[in-house]
Design a protein that fits this description.
The structure is a homodimer of 141-residue chains.
Chain A: H1 13-21, H2 28-38, E1 44-45, H3 47-56, H4 63-75, E2 80-85, E3 88-92, E4 98-103, E5 109-113, E6 118-120, E7 131-140
Parallel strand pairs in A: 4-7
Antiparallel strand pairs in A: 1-3, 2-3, 4-5
Bound molecules: manganese (II) ion (2 copies) and zinc ion (2 copies).
Chain A binds a DNA duplex (30 and 30 nucleotides) through residues 24-30, 46-48, 61-65, 67-68, 86-89.
Chain lengths: 141, 141
Amino acid sequence: MDERENVPQRPYAEVIDRLRSVDLRPTRQRLALARLLLEHGDRHITAEQLHGEAIDRGIRVSLATVYNTLHQFTSAGLLREVVVEAGRSYFDTNTSDHHHFYNETTGDLHDIPGSEVSVTSLPEPPDGSSVARVDVIVRLK
Amino acid sequence: MDERENVPQRPYAEVIDRLRSVDLRPTRQRLALARLLLEHGDRHITAEQLHGEAIDRGIRVSLATVYNTLHQFTSAGLLREVVVEAGRSYFDTNTSDHHHFYNETTGDLHDIPGSEVSVTSLPEPPDGSSVARVDVIVRLK
DNA sequence: AAAATAGTTTAGAACTGTTCTAAACTATTG
DNA sequence: CAATAGTTTAGAACAGTTCTAAACTATTTT
Ligand SMILES: [Mn+2]
Ligand SMILES: [Mn+2]
Ligand SMILES: [Zn+2]
Ligand SMILES: [Zn+2]
């Protein structure tokens, strides 16, 4: 077995390319945040949680940069923002069509695949507006 | 026509009884807020909007009281809270089972009667939790 | 390889919506 | 009419987020 086949020639090339493809320079901070967000499966995380996690791992990054990055990633379609309670935004690394269970006691947020919910017989949107997204939040207690 | 049949013997008796029935004293402030909220059809309003409206009508009431009142009314089931964006809570005078159109551009929030949406094939809630409510928000642009 | 440019990061101030505090006030009860 | 318990209030405090402008860095140009 050739050990080297697991050692990428260009480290983090995938994340770097992903950033370049949305016109964001792969800076040290963005790269580290992108790896925390995008290389660990589906996550629902707040800015402050992500900042804490970065600091815990020795990544020096300011909270302002975490906010900047989360918003840039969201605009670029790498993340989406989920609002389940006033005063706190969750950022979701799952950008596919899906919905959420939200446990109001624990604050846990879990995905429901889009295929497992159907919202039918919605009325027409008013006047000149069009549907941007349908969010279903199943609140648990 | 007897004019007096439109003049209640006990003014605002309905609102007063409603407050008493949920163990809230019918104070001047609560009564005024209850009338703004409950005698004007379905409304979706923030604390600051309601406070502004009260002040405009010459009702002297503090913002703290508006928040206290909105939360008390919500606990009592007279209102419900709708979260459509982080950092701002809407209070909804329609407590029946229904959903919402939310125009992200204008901030307008409109009801969709519960009968006009059906959410089917939801998966089981995780572990020992049970469904408190299902919120559908149709985001418009 | 330097220099120029444009994009990025940062600390800290500022801001927004909301909650807290504790003193003054008021509706209800005895 | 007191006594009591609930209510209101101004202002301070708080939490999450955004802003500012100066320092820094990735990329482009020469
Ligand atoms: Mn945002
Ligand atoms: Mn609340
Ligand atoms: Zn999700
Ligand atoms: Zn409503």
